[in-house]
Prior knowledge:
Elements: H1 2-5, H2 11-29, H3 38-56, E1 62-64, E2 69-71, H4 73-100, H5 105-123, H6 127-145, H7 152-183, H8 188-196, H9 203-220, H10 228-235, H11 238-245, H12 247-263, H13 268-291, H14 296-317, H15 324-355, H16 371-374, H17 376-390, H18 396-411
Antiparallel strand pairs: 1-2
Helix pairs in contact: 2-3, 2-5, 3-4, 3-5, 4-5, 4-11, 4-12, 4-15, 5-6, 5-12, 6-7, 6-12, 7-8, 7-9, 7-10, 8-12, 9-12, 9-13, 10-14, 11-15, 12-15, 13-14, 14-15, 14-18, 15-17, 15-18
Amino acid sequence: MLEKLNMMVALPGILLLAAASLLVVVDALSRGRPGISVDRLALAAIVLPFVVLISRIGDAPSTGFSGMVISDDFGNLLKICACVAVAATIIYARAYGMDRGLHRGEFYTLSLFALLGQLVMMSAHNMLVIYMGLELMSLSLYALAALRRDSAESTEAALKYFVLGALASGFLLYGMSMLYGGAGSLSIDVIAASLADSSRDHTVLILGSVFVVAGLAFKFGAVPFHMWVPDVYQGTANSVTLLIAGAPKLAAFAIAFRLLAEGLLPIAQHWQMMLIVLAVGSLVIGNLVAIAQTNFKRMIAYSTIAQIGFVFLGLLAGVDDRGADGAASAYGASMFYVITYVLTTLGTLGTILLLARKGFECQEIDDLRGLNQRSPWMAFVMLILMFSLTGIPPTVGFFAKLAVLSAAVDAG
């Protein structure tokens, strides 16, 4: 029984849960008392799972909770990047939050619980665990989106985010229920084995995969499920935008890989066609509409939509006739791309946070006019980050795009 439980597999999440719960209590008891820095406590809470995850790189894959949770290098690397992304957001958000009355305990505790949901999603090897992690992350982000209670724009963005996010969760949950009905199990391994059995009727499983892909497209913000992305990015506080634009994309990539590349691989020819449409639509619409934007955060939102198209191209390229080596190369390129995108976005929106002053949000592109005269180093950093998002050599964004396109060409 203890071997099946193996709670050490979930140790990073357990440590983060304990630290986040403790932070809630400390924040509630220390309201109005000087000397208590909730942001530093939140950073300390992230250090604990981060150290455990670093120590596990290179270890053999292991499972726990009767195979519902898995610890492998794929998940551990994404978890490390998610911890870095949330920690960077907390550091960036400190001065911004203090200027605008957002330096409150709920921002940091909700950020930790969103990170906990992401860790659960990245460890999931069972659809029930995937959904639990997804909802924990989503509910935390919904609350964070409405953090500026006195802002009508923020409230509208939070409402849109909640309604469309709930719709996406419904799509995903309905698809999972159909996969469970067709395979008789919530385990990803059992679903893959059921699909590999040619003697069984796979109609229900194929139909379930359609809803799963649609739900994942919503969470990624891919075209045509992208309507919430620009409004949420523009309407939320800059610190919350940074949190939404970063680590959640890593978690979405993790569950997309677990569900599609591991669970639904035997019927790849069915969901591949959907991903092709999503990838091409995201690349075309995202890039073209971004050109016409005057609001910087809306431009970044449409850029995000275009970047998701490249991520889907990498997932598509992993399903071909080249065998395990070709698939590993393609999935590795897609993973490298999403990590590169997240880190570049952290730098871009983080620079906007640093440029924002009290009473000045630095949201319009015109707000950056004259930046080179005011702060040459900031202008240079923003230039490099924009080049990277665009994919201009020799930035890392260029090499990420090159890796994905090379994998797609090799896959034919």
